[in-house]
Amino acid sequence: MIIVMTITAGEPEILQTVAGIEAAGLKAVVMPGGERVAVGITSAIPPDLREPLANHLGSLPGVDHVTHVTRSYKLASREFHAAPTCLDMQGVRIGGPQFQVIAGPCSVESYEQMSHAARAAKAAGARILRGGAFKPRTSPYAFQGLQEEGLRIIQAVGRENGLLTISEVMQTERMEKIARYVDILQIGARNMQNYPLLIEAGRCGHPVFLKRGPSATIEEFLLAAEYILYHNNPNVVLCERGIHPMDRSYCRNTLDLSAVPVLKEASHLPVFVDPSHGTGVARYVPAMSLAAAAAGADGLMIEMHPTPRTALSDGPQSLTPEQFDALMQRLRPMLTLLGKEL
Ligand code: PEP
Ligand code: MN
Predict the structure, then answer these.
(1) What is d(CA 155, CA 170) in angstroms, rounded to the nearest whole number?
(2) Minimal CB count within 10 Å: which of 32, 108, 109, 196?
(3) 105 CB near ligand 1 (under 6 Å)
């Protein structure tokens, strides 16, 4: 059971609600939300106590309503928050009628490369520029990213082109610093269950783009988001990016598109799809992008590189600027049919 407080409820009302729960011999946990606090009951409630307790708690001052949340994740659930969450970042809205495309190379390689990618992204209609500076590479011998220099480049190029920016964070100690350079922090698939990182992302308060781990169930994914929400950051975007495949000979991962309607039903958080990592093959990216939009995604993350053949990471799955532009042109009429805009 969750007791959702009114927006104006203060500490005395919250404490009174907690006391009401404890008086019934149950355990209460205060869960800070974006604009309002909720109080959850973490111990099992005897069936005959459910209704009288809900009525009693619902009548306390400062209580907006009481809901029965049957899921393990609470703050991420639709039961807690029925309306879809919409993030507004300098006028760019994620989770509303405007479909957002995040585009750019896997890694920041140079100012020229980023500048070229940013101009192409902007011209085609994207509003958010991606580029990894601290790269989680499977091999220690692979390019690890330009690190802080990469952040300086993506920040400068983003500003020059009027694009929001996103880059990955892998370590708690670096989070504050990275948040000073980019508008959105990406937590990559490999770190989806790095709990200290999730907690720090909660405390940091910066918008977080959380990618699904390759072996994570939907429940584990939503519980990872729950960590960030529970630690006081309501600005979370979910991203499906493919799960471990049964057969790697055709695609790098298996893009789980059914995760889109499943997540949209279970949670109020915006849902993105990354068909680049989802397939690992540039020529399959357009089809899966259109399919993701049709499935109800709120946006896409697409790797695009001025010259994919020379890319220092993920070249085979990166679109050229021309291919990216062609994809955006195919997306536009489809989104109109879906009642969305690009
Ligand atoms: C990336 O976005 O470049 C990346 C490493 O993605 P993922 O965490 O989904 O593998
Ligand atoms: Mn990549």
Answers:
(1) 18
(2) 196
(3) no
Q: Which of 154, 210, 277, 301 to mutate to test the pocket of ligand 1 (most atoms within 8 A of CB)?
A: 277
Q: Which domain, by its residues, includes 168?
A: 87-337
Checking if the pLDDT of 214 tops 90, the result is yes
Mean pLDDT of the chain: 96
Query: Is there a domain that residue 193 lies in?
Result: yes
Q: In this structure, what CATH number is given to the domain that contains residue 141?
A: 3.20.20.70
In this structure, are residues 70 and 313 in contact, taking their beta carbons and an 8 Å threshold?
no
Distance 131 CA to ligand 2 centre (A): 9
pLDDT digits (tens, 9 = 90+) for 54-65: 999 999 999 999
Q: Is the pTM of this model over 0.85?
A: yes
Amino acid 311: pLDDT: 98
Nearest to 288 by CA among 259, 312, 309, 314: 259
Residues 95 and 51 in one domain: no
Looking at residue 82, its pLDDT comes to: 85
Considering the domain architecture, whether residues 37 and 157 belong to the same structural domain is answered as no
Residues 187 and 280 in one domain: yes
State pLDDT tens for residues 59-108: 999 999 999 888 889 999 998 888 899 999 999 999 999 999 999 999 99
Q: Which atom of ligand 1 lies closest to the CA of 190? A: 8
